Amino acid sequence: MMITLVFLGRLAEQAGGPTRQLPAPLDWAGLLGALDTGLAAQVASDRVRLALNGGLLADKTQLRAEAGDEVALLPPVSGG
């Protein structure tokens, strides 16, 4: 089974699309390793939040996703 990554906002452009499938299980190191260097650096920044199955993780480095889970990457909100 797979895990679905969801890229929101400008992260979707950088990822080349809004979703990607990765094999389960997935931890923080595995997530970063599955992304190209530039995108991984953005995701690792303090400005990008991470949600697992709709719930924000207080510490994204504690990510533990299993088969069927959805991991959403949320860029900072820009406004005006």
From TrEMBL:
Protein name: Thiamine biosynthesis protein ThiS
Family annotation (Pfam families): ThiS (PF02597)
Lineage: Bacteria, Pseudomonadati, Pseudomonadota, Alphaproteobacteria, Sphingomonadales
Gene3D superfamilies linked to this entry: 3.10.20.30
